[in-house]
From TrEMBL:
Gene from which the chain derives: cobD
One example GO MF annotation: threonine-phosphate decarboxylase activity
Protein name in the entry: Cobalamin biosynthesis protein CobD
Family: Belongs to the CobD/CbiB family.
Function, as annotated: Converts cobyric acid to cobinamide by the addition of aminopropanol on the F carboxylic group.
Pathway listed: Cofactor biosynthesis; adenosylcobalamin biosynthesis
HAMAP family in alphabetical order: CobD_CbiB (MF_00024)
Matching PANTHER family: COBALAMIN BIOSYNTHESIS PROTEIN CBIB
Organism per entry: Marinobacter adhaerens
InterPro entries per the UniProt record, alphabetical: Cobalamin_biosynth_CobD/CbiB
Coiled-coil intervals: none
Domain of life: Bacteria
BP terms from Gene Ontology: cobalamin biosynthetic process
UniProt membrane topology term: Multi-pass membrane protein
Taxonomic placement: Bacteria, Pseudomonadati, Pseudomonadota, Gammaproteobacteria, Pseudomonadales
Amino acid sequence: MTLWMACVLALVLDYVLGEPGRLHPVVGFGQLATAVEKRFNTAPDKAWKSLFTGWFSVLLLMAPVLGVALWVSVTLNGVLRVATEAITLWLAISLRGLTEHGLAVAEPLRKGDLEVAQEQVSRIVSREASALDEQGVAAAATESMLENGADAVFASLFWFLVAGIPGVVLHRMINTLDAMWGYRNPRFLYFGRAAARLDDLMGWVPARLTALTYMLLGDRKLAWRCWRNQAPQWDSPNAGPVMAAGAGALGVRIGGPSPYPSGVKHRPVLGGVQAAGSASVEAAIRLVWRGVWLWLGVVLMGAVLLSLVVN
């Protein structure tokens, strides 16, 4: 029951306060990661050396923080423990931030202001936003809501429920390092492989639970068909099921050719046949919110049943 209480408190904090901005621990961790990468990623073209320094850098950054998280989880009890768990989870999730970023794109799209919508979507995706039409902006934002729902909400909830404070801290660190180093470019091809592989590993189960959540709360038949047939075509083993099932649940079409600064990237089409628009962005946000309520309900039910069995 205490885990459920911590989850609820964390979501309340997120809803009321949002993210703490520049004072966010993840920002500080990211700055430290940048310094470490500059210090050790000195020979990106030398595969074995770069692979070794990449693994070493990941361990160097994570070990002290994980040690503190383990110590806190072992020593704290009672109300102080629940409060600490709630604050830690609040700092890891970003449900309000996801909602605000999505609505910032959907609202100008609904008003027909493409330029503002392009500017806002450029804040959440790496695409060449100025080259996107209305449908392209909406598809990009819809994809971001579905994928970040998995990374920034459900994966954090999952690892907190599985391993408490150490679990959610470990996942957030790995996910942050993957976002910073997990690029397939000359600088990070080898150095960033450790972070990318660890992120794939930690995200495997949460991604599929997220896909299942989306499927249960939308068009089940289409979501399952998209998950089964389309997800394997995606280049990410975790983003594929999440976005395919999510797009199928909404009946919306995402993916396809997209402009990036390096050129047009031809990606598989995911989902149904309905063109993306402001409504699909808002529907994706609602899908994530409903998924959170579903998870809370399942956790509460599990806690009640466990207490009945124990007593």
